Automatic annotation (TrEMBL):
Keyword Acyltransferase: yes
InterPro entries (alphabetical): Thiolase, Thiolase-like, Thiolase_C, Thiolase_CS, Thiolase_N
Every Thiolase N-terminal domain range: 5-259
Record CDD domains: thiolase (cd00751)
Protein name per its UniProtKB record: Acetyl-CoA C-acetyltransferase
PANTHER family in alphabetical order: ACETYL-COA C-ACYLTRANSFERASE, BLR7806 PROTEIN
GO molecular function annotations of the record: acetyl-CoA C-acyltransferase activity
Domain Thiolase C-terminal positions: 267-388
Length: 390
């Protein structure tokens, strides 16, 4: 079967809700990452055959086909098509897998997988208004309610359920979260993100502008005392804003190409797609599926967890990567080595290609070979992608 290669992987530095990136329209924010792919790879813009744009909140400023609008706002020719997809938090990880599938099937040779989310301008849960005359006025249909009576599908409840199931205390979650901030701060200070971050112009707070190159959510001064002082999201629970991912504005993109395209356009592959899969599980506990998806992916790839050099497991909530580590017996020194979404932010539809950019560059910096990326997704879904750094 033909191979699919990653030839560039970029992301913007995350912006906090209402922070430095809030002034960027999400279409232009996405276009910034598309343009950076052209700059970093040197690919002929006319060679791009498709753009697959992940985005969860496809309404308001992210509505009316955000992927196509991003292409039109970028330096890509207008003949380049696009599609906007939603697999919840795994949207742009699915973009990578769709792009790789297109290349491996021989259908296309050069595809950009990308993602964007401005959680400031299109808040989480922005689905537009429901039609008043129809009841129930909810995204949960009568058919769903018949199968899952009285159950509200919420990731917050799922995170609490995982913590309880796996025996994680509030202190354990906060310890994990503190480590995420410390690792992210150390990585940023050491320039570990320099190769992946796309500088964008933002206000400097003094009437001028500056280039935004550092993730705004990193808290180098974070402490256990500070985390312990935060209120839990539900009474008697263990989840707080401190041990959950940060609301974030950002975009990201990955260039996927065939071997023929690599030769034709003089591209330099930085990784090869080794395996990709997606699974569905319990929609109630919801966020636990990466545990079982990873088991299935490793078996299908003929690998063991110890064969993987680095893991990127999205930190939607601290219990998710913690349960993943426990279930798989994985090495905690290999997970999210540059910090995760608790410190760096989780820009929903952009997180898949964002994590891939971090994973590829972290493998390269350490001279390591195999990386695995997975993330929990609404509805009890999980994507798993395994890459080989080149």
């Amino acid at each position: 079967m033909p191979e699919a290669y990653i030839c560039a992987a970029v992301r913007t530095a995350g912006g906090r809700r209402g922070g430095k990136v809030a002034g960027w329209h999400p279409v232009d924010l996405a276009a910034a990452s598309l343009n950076a792919i052209l700059d970093r790879s040197g690919v002929d813009p006319n060679a791009i055959e498709d753009v697959i744009m992940g985005c969860v909140g496809q309404t308001k400023e992210q509505g009316l086909h955000v992927g196509r609008n991003a292409v039109l706002a970028s330096r890509l020719p207008q003949h380049v098509p696009a599609v906007s997809i939603d697999r919840q938090c795994g949207s742009s990880q699915q973009s990578i897998q769709f792009a790789a599938q297109a290349v491996m099937s021989g259908t296309q040779d050069v595809v950009i997988a990308a993602g964007v989310e401005s959680m400031t301008r299109v808040p989480m849960g922005s689905t537009g208004s429901f039609t008043p005359e129809f009841q129930p006025n909810s995204a949960k249909s009568p058919g769903l309610d018949e199968k899952f009576p009285g159950i509200a599908f919420t990731q917050f409840a799922g995170a609490e359920m995982i913590a309880q199931k796996h025996g994680f205390s509030r202190e354990m979650l906060d310890e994990y979260s503190l480590r995420s901030h410390k690792r992210a701060a150390a990585a940023a200070d050491a320039g570990a993100f320099d190769q992946e971050i796309v500088p964008i112009e933002v206000p400097d707070g003094d009437g001028g502008t500056m280039m935004h190159t550092r993730d705004e959510g990193i808290r180098a001064e974070a402490s256990m005392e500070g985390l312990a002082g935060l209120k839990t999201l539900q009474e008697g629970g263990v989840i707080t804003a401190g041990n959950a991912s940060q609301i974030c504005d950002g975009s990201s993109a990955v260039l996927v190409a065939s071997e023929a395209a690599v030769k034709k356009y003089g591209l330099t592959p930085i990784a090869r797609i080794h395996h990709m899969s997606v699974t569905g599980g319990d929609p109630v506990i919801m966020l636990e599926e990466p545990l079982f998806a990873t088991e299935k992916a490793l078996k299908r790839a003929g690998m063991k967890i110890d064969d993987i050099d680095l893991y990127e497991v999205n930190e939607a909530f601290a219990p998710v990567p913690m349960a993943w580590l426990k279930h798989l017996g994985a090495d905690p020194e290999k997970i999210n080595v540059n910090g995760g979404a608790i410190a760096l932010g989780h820009p929903l539809g952009a997180s898949g290609t964002k994590l891939m950019a971090t994973l590829v560059h972290a493998l390269k910096a350490r001279g390591k070979k195999y990386g695995l990326q997975t993330m929990c997704e609404g509805g009890g879904l999980a994507n798993v992608t395994i890459i080989e750094a080149l």
